[in-house]
Each structure stands twice: as structure tokens, then as C-alpha cells.
Amino acid sequence: MKLEGSCHCGSVRFSCKAYAPVPYMHCYCSICRKTAGGGGYAINLGAYAESLKVEGREHLAVYQAVIHDEHGDTRTSSGQRHFCRLCGSALWLYDPTWPELVHPHASAIDTPLPEAPERVHIQLDSKASWVPAPEGPHDAHFPEYPDESLREWHRRHGLLDD
């Protein structure tokens, strides 16, 4: 599915081909909720990095989070969170660990997205206390990450062409 997205002020526009276009995984980690906002979580989609086309690249900035472990040690995340430096909109994440992929934020997508048959709430151990995580028959909850990947979830729900 071709996705088109933009920042709030319109200075950055982008498109990409998504292999996993259904917004189902709500990430409550402190990085996602603080950099992407919106409900206290972020929803990332799966797309092919080679298909990413960007207009207004000069308005982009990249943030790489500093991660603190349980021993007090820190490291810089390999994830490169792209955002508009003019309005602050979170746009996509690229991680060179998986160079063939890019993960647009569902909140930045202008193309109508399909409704998810299930919502997966991840990183609930990091969830802010004020944020409710819905608990319905179509909600799955994980303290950290599920074993199932974006691709596997889409395949299980019959949402992939491959």
C-alpha cells in the first residue's frame, strides 16, 4: 500500500510503500510517548526504506534516544527518529540495523489507513500512569515486546500479499 504523510506545518511531505500498513501496535515506551505524543504512545507502520521519497528534506532533524539500562549504563539508540524541525511532528523511524525498513508514524500518515482487527499494546511496563490501555476482546497486552513481528502479525490476520 502506498502511504503519503506530512508534518503538521506541511514543510515535510513523504511517501513510501508499506508492507505492514495496519496501525495495530501501540508502543507505550518513554521514547515513543515523549517524542511522538498522541495518547501517550506511538504507532509505527512497516514500509520499505528504498521506497521512501521526501520533499522538504532540509526541514528534517533526527533524534537518537539515549537509553538507560537497569545498571545505570547508557547507550545511544541506533534508531533514528526523523521529525520536522519547524513544527516538531514525528514522521518516521529508520534503524540501520534493518536497512531495508523504515517505520512511519501512523500519526503522520495522510492516506486513509485500514482499521486493525486487533490492537497490541506493548512496553506497558513503561506506560505513564495517566494513560489507559484499553482492555477489550480485541486488545492484547505485553509488558515489553511480543514474540510476533509486524510482518508475522499482518500475515496471521491475512493482511499481506506475500
Automatic annotation (TrEMBL):
The keyword ATP-binding does not apply. SUPFAM superfamilies: Mss4-like. Signal peptide: none annotated. Keywords: Lyase, Metal-binding, Zinc. Pfam families: GFA (PF04828). Residues 3-139 form the CENP-V/GFA domain. InterPro entries: CENP-V/GFA, Mss4-like_sf. GO terms for molecular function: carbon-sulfur lyase activity; metal ion binding. Belongs to the Gfa family. This is GFA family protein. It comes from Oleiagrimonas citrea. The lineage of its organism: Bacteria, Pseudomonadati, Pseudomonadota, Gammaproteobacteria, Lysobacterales.
